[in-house]
Design brief:
Layout lengths: L1 H13 L2 H7 L9 H25 L3 H14 L20 H4 L1 H24 L3 H19 L7
Length: 152
């Protein structure tokens, strides 16, 4: 049951990476922070997928490297959202800049939960719980600050 829930969270948070690439390839975005953040988020999504796939396979070995990369990338998020960096093909909501402290806090929370996942994965602790905490952090930020992917 928990694996199914984690799998669902991964799909909800990151499963649209391939669809986003098809519908909004980074080459359609202007060079600079908008394209850079799109690519950064795709990388985070790919690493989250690696973690989810590892959990489904019962092999937590890849979790450490993927979570370490997410932790590093999370530290780069806010720098890629300078004021006024909007574009019609970006899924960034205006709420990012209207509630900057909360957005910044979400990026820091992702760093923290990814770091905690690294620790539990190295120690053989509750990797599923650590991953779920990280995925919940992603979902919370996406729900507040990312325009949903167009369906259909």
């Amino acid at each position: 049951m928990r694996i199914a829930w984690i799998s669902g969270a991964i799909v909800l948070c990151f499963g649209g990476v391939a669809a986003v690439r098809a519908a909004n390839p980074s080459t359609d975005l202007p060079a600079g922070p908008i394209r850079d953040r799109h690519e950064l988020m795709e990388g985070i999504g790919n690493n989250a997928k690696t973690i989810g796939d590892a959990l489904k396979a019962g092999n937590t070995a890849p979790v450490v490297v993927a979570a370490e990369q997410i932790q590093r990338d999370a530290g780069r998020i806010t720098a890629l959202f300078p004021s006024g960096s909007t574009h019609q093909k970006s899924r960034a909501k205006a709420e990012i800049w209207q509630n900057w402290a909360k957005f910044e806090g979400g990026a820091k929370d992702l760093q923290t939960t990814a770091a905690a996942l690294v620790v539990v994965a190295r120690s053989g602790g509750d990797v599923r719980g650590g991953a779920q905490a990280m995925f919940d952090t992603c979902k919370s930020c996406h729900d507040q600050f990312r325009i949903p992917e167009k369906q259909g």
